[in-house]
Amino acid sequence: MARRAGALIAAGLAALTLGPVAVVMMQAGEGMLSSADLAALRFTVVQAALSSLASVACAVPLARALARRRFPGRGLLVTALGAPFLLPVIVAVLGLLAVFGRAGVVNTALRGLGLPEVSIFGLGGVVLAHVFLNMPLATRMILQGWQAVPAERLRLAQSLGFGPRHVWQHIEVPMLRDVLPGTALAVFAICLTSFAVVLILGGGPAATTVELAIYQAVRFEFDLTRAALLALMQVGTCGLAVAVASFFALPAGFGAGLDRSADLPAPDGWRRISDAGVIALATLFLAGPLLAVALRGAPGLLALPVSVWPALAASLLVAVLAAPLAVGAALALALARAQGLGWVGPIAMLPMAGSQLVLGTGLFLLVFPFVSPATVALPVTVLVTAIMALPFAYRILAPQAQVLVTDYGRLAASLGLSGWPALRLLVLPRLRRPLGFALGLTGALAVGDLGVIALFAAEQGATLPLVISRLMGAYRMTQAAGAALLLVIAAFGLFWMCDRWGRGGTEA
Amino acid sequence: MAELRLEGFRITQDDFTLRADLALPAGGRVAVIGPSGAGKSTLLNAIAGFVPLNAGAMTWAGQRIDALPPGERPLSILFQDQNLFPHLTVAQNLGLGLDPGLRHVDWGGVNGVLDRVGLAGLGGRRPAQLSGGQQSRAALARALLRARPILLLDEPFAALGPALKAEMLALVEETAGEALVVLVTHDPADARQFAKQTVLVADGVAAAPQPTAEIFANPPPALAAYLGQ
């Protein structure tokens, strides 16, 4: 039953992911790449590589400090490091603008000191935003590596009289060699398809990514052949990155288990001070922009334009439809995989090789001859959001589904427990916690998402992130910050509700 | 009289092969004994439907059963562990034996069986709130409730101490009635206490059953080696 459902869903997912790409390929056949397109490709790869290296470079000292120090609020900080993954990208950008923008805190201070200003636009700003968004996730992945070091090995190191330098050489470096490639590639792949950041902080011939170029080709130039060509280029790049990444074990970045009290030696002296400095700096860097949004947005909450409310409703609708769709499909795939249907695993990860705007362009080309794209903006957004969120939900559910089938598969089969009764009596109660977490995660991602909707929506039917970006484009920053605050509340509220539901199950 | 028949039965997994040609009668009490890794559990899992046959046939009362899904075979099985769902109550775990959807369950009957295995009044507890011996009783109670003509026991009481294990085997003997009971064990004492007949699994073959007293009095070389004689 679960196998058949899983096979059907896998086939549907493959069709929905590969179908738009096929449409894009047919359309792209007649076009030629221009030098601007190649510049976009170059910028995409360069910014993703720099973002990835910078994120990992910042994450290693932070993870190390968190791994070997114990202080009040440490657990809270580690939990909070999971939050930027749920944070709507547009809110992060707004916060960074408030700190690093022309009228931001940093530049005001620099002006006061008579120093030259820094610009947040262009390559530097794009990389800064990507570090802000991805460094926390990288930190959690690397921290996992530190905490997976067996206590026996640390005891052995202590019995041999290792100092911090020798611990680094014989224990930490080998661990990092295992963990870093996967972490760096994960961040690299995320940054390749980043859209909202580049839409606001990038642009122009010097700072346009392929994803942004697709958007411009569809929205402004209405050159669908060029959009298709760019989309094809994007598929090639992402596919390559995902293929390379699949050779490396990907550390788990979210989930529990980061609170184990490891016996990692906590050296005194200057190392203690530098660890404290790293933690303080990172906290400031991550909390500052969010604080700025909250401070600016609180007055803005009282003066929200009316366009915000239908947009909030649209965003919530997308989330309420897309999250169960993604999680339900991921569950069916995870169960089928656990029951021996191995080929559905790679299919579940297939959306990682595409991007929102590639899928969007394909669907745009499909519907455009028949209906006005604006009329199907919301259904397409639900579908694309669900597809893009599915791999995350799958990665949360797959290990737990495997445990479920290993532990109780034979017992359920021997009792003839299958189909809906099995779902109701076995799967839902046993997997309630990861299901709640996955629903919350995909729901928050869906609420805060700004991607394919930008391609399809007209003035009407916009989602909240799109309305925020329009407010920012009109320099109505207070209103934008107010709407951003609302969006944060919606995203985290949704996550909190779903996760709490998941934790409400009986534990046994 | 009905019997469980394995004809030309063969299972091949990598370089492991298990063959059997044997018949076990209804109401029988059969021990399956042999060195570890010889295929005792594989034999039981194949009868229960978790390991497919590579050749041969399996019948109960003349009907082929080897193509049926595990839940539809005329048997119940108790595994070494994981016999109860930890998130359901004991009564719900038993109810699954009557209706996997838990919608059409005779809860009075459930309580009656709990009574018979000495768990009266514990139906509302979760498995984690029971002792190991009580968990075994609950699993056995569900098998009784299902009332299938064959009961397969894959060392389900191995984790209990000797006294508790003997007590459980006595309870099985007392409650199983006309069912054919097949018990996998590595402990000769279990076989002597419980089984009139014993199947020796060794060297890739599950031999036809022999009277337990005889096989231990005059063990074939493989069994003698296993017993350390």
TrEMBL record, chain A:
Organism: Gemmobacter aquaticus
Parts of the chain that traverse the membrane: 45-63, 75-101, 113-133, 184-207, 227-255, 276-295, 307-335, 347-370, 376-394, 435-457, 477-498
Cellular compartment(s): Cell membrane
Domain ABC transmembrane type-1: start-end pairs: 41-243, 312-498
Keywords, ordered alphabetically: Cell membrane, Membrane, Transmembrane, Transmembrane helix, Transport
GO biological process, one term: transmembrane transport
Gene: thiP
InterPro entries per record: MetI-like (IPR000515), MetI-like_sf (IPR035906)
Keyword Transmembrane carried by entry: yes
Domain of life: Bacteria
Alphabetical list of PANTHER family matching this protein: MOLYBDENUM TRANSPORT SYSTEM PERMEASE PROTEIN MODB, THIAMINE TRANSPORT SYSTEM PERMEASE PROTEIN THIP
Keyword presence, rRNA-binding: no
Protein name as catalogued: Thiamine/thiamine pyrophosphate ABC transporter permease ThiP
Topology within the bilayer: Multi-pass membrane protein
GO CC annotation: plasma membrane
PROSITE patterns membership: ABC_TM1 (PS50928)
UniProtKB/TrEMBL annotation, chain B:
Molecular function GO terms recorded: ATP binding; ATP hydrolysis activity
Taxonomic superkingdom: Bacteria
Residues covered by the ABC transporter domain: 1-228
Matches recorded under Pfam families: ABC_tran
Cell membrane as UniProt keyword: yes
UniProt keywords, alphabetically: ATP-binding, Cell inner membrane, Cell membrane, Membrane, Nucleotide-binding, Translocase, Transport
PROSITE patterns xrefs: ABC_TRANSPORTER_1, ABC_TRANSPORTER_2
Record's protein name: Thiamine import ATP-binding protein ThiQ
Taxonomic source organism: Gemmobacter aquaticus
Source taxonomy: Bacteria, Pseudomonadati, Pseudomonadota, Alphaproteobacteria, Rhodobacterales
